[in-house]
Amino acid sequence: MSDFAEKLIAWQQAHGRHDLPWQQTRDPYAIWVSEIMLQQTQVSAVIAYYDRFMQRFPTIASLAEAEQDEVMRYWSGLGYYSRARNLHHAAQTIMREHCGIFPTDFDTIQTLKGIGRSTAAAISVFAFNQRQTILDGNVKRVLARLYAVEGWPGLPDVEKKLWQIAESVLPSQGLPAYVQGLMDFGATLCTRSKPNCHRCPMQASCLAYQQQMVSVLPAPKPRKALPEKQTTVLMILDAGEILLERRPNHGIWGGLWSLPELSPSALAVPHVKTTFDMDVEPLETLPVLWHTFTHFKLEITPQPLLLQGKRPPPAPNQQWLALEDAVAAALPTPVRTLIKELQQLRF
DNA sequence: AAGTCGGGGCT
DNA sequence: AGCCCAGACTT
Questions:
Q1: How confident is the model at residue A285 (pLDDT cuts 50, 70, 90)?
Q2: Phi and psi for A289 in degrees, rounded to 5?
Q3: Is A35 annotated in the active site?
Q4: How much is the pTM?
C-alpha cells in the first residue's frame, strides 16, 4: 500500500467523518442519492434534504413511480435541478432495464443519467467495496498539493494527470475508508484557504509544502481579461488649490469627492469653459495611471490645468482644497496618487 | 474547450 | 462581491 494511502486511512479513522446519514448503509440507492445531492453542494446543506428525500422515496421503485413534480418539490432549494430530473429518469431506467436492481458494474453505472466517473466510483466503493477512485474538487486539491501539480485542474491535461495520480496511490484494500478519507481530508484539513499543515500527517511527503507552494496550489481558474475603460480627470489648479467635485451617489466611487471627469474624446479647455465657465491653460501632463476594479480596468489620463483670471464661485458639488489637504482627504486611491504626484512636481 | 446549472458558505 | 463546493452535461 502506498505510504499516502496508509496514512490517509489512519487519519480517517482518527479524524474523519463517520456519522453522516448516508454512511450508515451499503444500500446503493441511498448512497447514489447522497452522491448526487453532494455534487457541488456542501455536506451541511445536504443533510436535511437527504433525510426528507429518503423518507418520501425510500426505494428505487418508489422514486421511479413518483411524479416528476413531486420529486422536484423535494429538491427545491438545493439547486442544480437537472440532478433531480436525471435521478428520477435513472430510477426509471433501472426499473426498466436492470430489473429494479442497481447495477454493480462500474461502466454500467456510468451509463445512468447524472452519474459520471467520479460519482460512479464513489457508489462502487461505498456500496460494492470495489477498487475505484473518485476525483472531486477536494481530491483535486489534495493531490495537486501532494504532488505539486501545476495548472488549473479544470484543464483536460491537468485533470488527466490528476486521475492518473489518483489511480496510482489507490490502496488494494480498505477502499471505503480510504475514499471517505480523501474527501474528509480535503474538506476539513487540506482546505482551500488556510490548510492545517501543522496537523497534516502527509506534511513530510507533500511536495507543495516542501516547495512552499501550498497557498498557490491548486492554480485558480484563469479569469478572462477585464474589460478596459478610459477616462480623463481634470486637475484644475489655482493658488495652490485644486478643484474637487462630489461624484453622484450611484456608480463607481458613489458620493466620494474626486476630480472632475472628462470623456476622453472631449477637449479639456473648451469643456472647462463651457461647463465651469473658467479660462484655463494646459500644464505639463502627468503619466497615465491604471486602476483595477473587480469588474474592469480603468485607464486614467490626468489633465493638469492652470486657472487664468478670476475664480468663479464653486457649485454645491464643488470645492477648492489645498493640495496638501487634498492628499490627506478621503479621495479614491488613484485620485490621491495623482494629486500626490502633482504636488511633488510643483516643488 | 467553454458554457451552464444554483443556493449557500467563506473570505 | 467573487470564488468554491462529494460534477455532469451540452454546445
A1: confident
A2: -120, 135
A3: yes
A4: 0.72
